[in-house]
Specification:
The chain is of the alpha/beta class and about 90 residues long. About 35% of the residues lie in helices and about 25% in strands. The chain has one domain: 3-Layer(aba) Sandwich (Hypothetical Protein Ychn, Chain: A). α1 runs parallel beside α2.
Length: about 90
């Protein structure tokens, strides 16, 4: 059965994105939520973002400085209630 998984990216950005890429190996729906901060620009983060984009993973942020779909914190909280698993980093 296909699960709906959310990965919340906060403090450990590189690890969170690596985990999100790994979760795509199963036939589950994976979405990434970059919370509060601007996403770093190191090589590992860039590679993981590129991979997630190629895999058509939805990336959302509550920080308008990020170049992803914008969603308010309140809207993100309401949406997370629909997920089978929420993994915070």
């Amino acid at each position: 059965m296909k699960k709906k998984i959310a990965v919340l990216v906060r403090d450990r950005q590189t690890e969170a994105l690596r985990m999100a890429v790994g979760l795509t190996l199963e036939d589950d729906e994976v979405n990434v939520f970059v919370m509060d901060r601007k996403l770093g620009d190191d090589q590992a983060i860039s590679l993981n973002i590129e991979t997630l984009n190629e895999l058509r993973v939805r990336i959302v942020s509550n920080n308008p400085d990020n170049d992803f779909e914008f969603m308010s914190t309140e809207d993100i909280a309401r949406e997370l209630a629909e997920y089978d698993a929420v993994i915070p980093y």
